[in-house]
Amino acid sequence: MKIKNIEKAAERIRKAAKNKEQIIIFADSDLDGTASATILKETIDNLLGRNHLKTAVFFPKRKEEGYGLNDKALDVIISQFKKGGLLITLDCGITNFEEVKKAGKNGFTVIIVDHHQPIGGLPEADIIVDPKQQEETRVFKEYANAGITFKLAEEILKEEMPSLLRESFLELTALATISDMMIETEENKEFIIQGLATIENSERPAFKALFSFLSPDDFNSKRDWISKVNSALNSSKMDGHIMAVYSFLIESDLEKAKGMARELLEESDQKHREISVLVDEITRKSLNGSLIFEGSPDWNIEYLGAVASRLCNRFEKPVFLHQKYEEFSRGTVRVPKGKDAVKAMESCKELLRTFGGHPPAAGFTVENKNIEKFKKCLLDYFDGVK
Ligand SMILES: [Mn+2]
What domains, with CATH codes, occur in the chain? Predict the structure, then answer.
């Protein structure tokens, strides 16, 4: 069984390439999103040649715009592409009802490729590829978005996919599957085994460059090495709407890639130091009750996911952390196995501006005036009051 609509999406993308339509890739700003964008961009390059000008890539600026497709970023795209084009969202889009509608009104054909759980129906996109929308129980639904994008690339290029390109895509898919903490069974397990088998000798200049500073020989296990690689690739530094990591992954010049790798590693060390400081700071507070719910204007949303993961592992309770802005707060959520962050927030949805994600890891935005009510609502939910 194939993922619903994946052939349709592949067909539409082939057609766009053939007709030299403007293609806009919009991917989320994490490793899964950047890996997905890299796979799709290089797939289209394979059809059109590396230097074609028909693909533009965008990522949301997390600090200003938050996660996924958003109105501000969409306005930039609309003003830049007045005639519209084929807009493909990767690792986001499935809960962006308003934005998808607006893109359609402005002349864009929209393909959503996402692995998040749809909430309250589906957006009005032209094609939606998201295994979670599917009733079919024989379809494996737990791919990272890069896994879905890899399968889409296979559909687009078919037997024309060069084996080196396939290897290279599998390396990215393996890293993204591990980074997004997807379950390591079925095809995910295959992706990881195959991707990690070749990655040490990867043809990708970015990986050659990175591994010249970060050799697997210096680590106890391959997995320890990969987690260090992943943390270096999880930088969310932006240049406009472009992720530094994306520019790194697609860089074809080895010397340039080395300079970028050095910067990413420095940044990742800095981030680790800040994360440890935050974990200690929150741990020092009294953490009674069935949930950890904390926020501050001084915290950096970029780091809160990693902080929440560590606290969730250590205390084995749901963790909701937010950065407070003037009028609203943006937060990230991690919950222990057996609990569901999305359902918890769904039970409080009238208090939230936006929310979404996966059962173990999710995010939200909330007006500051509703924060205390939101916390109370979550306590009621996790204490089983409702
Ligand atoms: Mn993802």
Answer: 6-254 (3.90.1640.30), 285-382 (3.10.310.30)
Q: What are the backbone angles phi and psi of residue 28, rounded to the nearest 5°?
A: -70, 155
Q: What is the pLDDT of residues 250-273, one digit of tens each?
A: 999 999 999 999 999 999 999 889
Q: How many CA atoms lie within 13 A of 49 on its CB side?
A: 5
Determine contact, residues 320/361, Cβ cutoff 8 Å: no
Q: What are the Cα distances from residue 214, in Å, to 209, 222, 223, 348? A: 9, 12, 13, 44
The CA 288 to ligand 1 mean position distance, Å, reads: 32
Tell me the CA–centroid distance for residue 144 and ligand 1, in Å: 5
Q: How far is the CA of 233 from the centre of ligand 1 (A)?
A: 14
User: What angle (nearest 5°) sits at the alpha carbon of residue 99, between those of residues 53 and 102?
Assistant: 80
Ion ligand 1, residues whose Cβ is below 5 A away? 32, 91, 145, 180
Ligand 1 centroid to Cα of residue 222, in Å, is 23
CA 360 / ligand 1 centre spacing (Å) = 12
Q: Which structure tokens are listed for 296?
A: 């501050």
Q: State in Å: Cα 210 to ligand 1 middle.
A: 23
Q: Which parts of 316-359 fold into alpha helices (H)?
A: 341-346
Separation of alpha carbons 198 and 364, rounded Å: 37
Structure confidence at residue 298 (pLDDT) = 94
User: What pLDDT does residue 62 have?
Assistant: 81
| DSSP letter for each residue of 54-117 | -EEEE---HHHH-SSS-HHHHHHHHHH-TT-EEEEEES--TT-HHHHHHHHHTTEEEEEE--SP
> Is residue 113 classed exposed, middle or buried when 0-12, 13-18 and 19+ CB atoms within 10 A define those classes?
buried
Q: Which secondary structure element, helix H or strand E, spans residue 242, and what is its range?
A: strand 242-243
Report, as ranges of residue numbers, the positions in the chain whose pLDDT lies below 70. Answer: 286, 385-386
Q: Kindly give the distance from the C-alpha atom of residue 19 to the centroid of ligand 1, in angstroms, as a whole number.
A: 30
Distance CA(129)–CA(149), nearest Å, equals: 10
Q: How many Cβ atoms sit within 10 Å of the Cβ of residue 84?
A: 18
Tell me, in angstroms, the distance from the centre of ligand 1 to residue 160's CA.
27
Q: What angle do CA 247, 145, 224 make, to 5 degrees?
A: 70
On the CB side of 119, how many CA atoms lie within 13 Å of its CA?
Answer: 21
